[in-house]
Amino acid sequence: MTLYTDLIAAVAATESGFSAFVTDDWKQGRTTYGGLSAALCVEAALRTFPEAPPLRSAQFAFVGPASGELAIQVKPLRQGKSTLFVAVDLVGEQGVATHGVLTFGAARTSTLSYSEVPAPDVAAPEACESFFPESRQGAPHFSAQFEVRKAGGTRPLAGGEPEYLLWIRHRDPAARSLSALIALADMPPPPAMALFTQFGPISTMTWAMDVVGLPDEGDDGWRLLRTKAETVGEGYSTQEMHLWDRNGRPLVLARQNVAVFV
Fold this sequence. Notes:
mainly beta; twelve-stranded antiparallel sheet; two-stranded antiparallel sheet; 3 helices; 11% helix; globular
């Protein structure tokens, strides 16, 4: 199994940007797992602009399949006194696979402070059962890179409410960077799958996220993720996603649009 930190360490600078090689254990079907595609875009942007202010938001369009040798192209869109807008393309053999627009913003003095994203009250991850069966039958290859425990909600093929509440973390203990957090935030299957009565393929089309906090250095890596399908119909699903650290501090708030082939 290729560790996340080893894969990221192998990202190399080229004349036109960066190159990366994605092994099969990071694939979902015939393409690179979407969270890793987004993480590669973020990693390339951070290497291009090492003095960039904190990442505040990002939008990704998963345009086509990506696997094996990939090119990453980074283009600044606008840089002001406190903000930086960057476009990133992840390119495979068939052309652009993922297009990202990243927004970085420096902190500013403000008289306002408000946060109302309470974490659900759940048992600690050590007291929760594994989300995937021990045999991992039917689980995508990339999911073996993560520890996933069921904190609430339902599982695929259960026919229950379209919502997952999970404890998740990288199996790689060194995967604690910002890009690693992005890769982790997309880990669970779309909650629309909780409505499936039989297996069917899915494909994330777009992912929009706001980064509202970063985990403390040296924590144990566990993140609580709640993702809920809001609408499912005509072959598509919209879903919201919230990610907290173990202490209930919000880290990522996100939305996805997912193609459902059932």
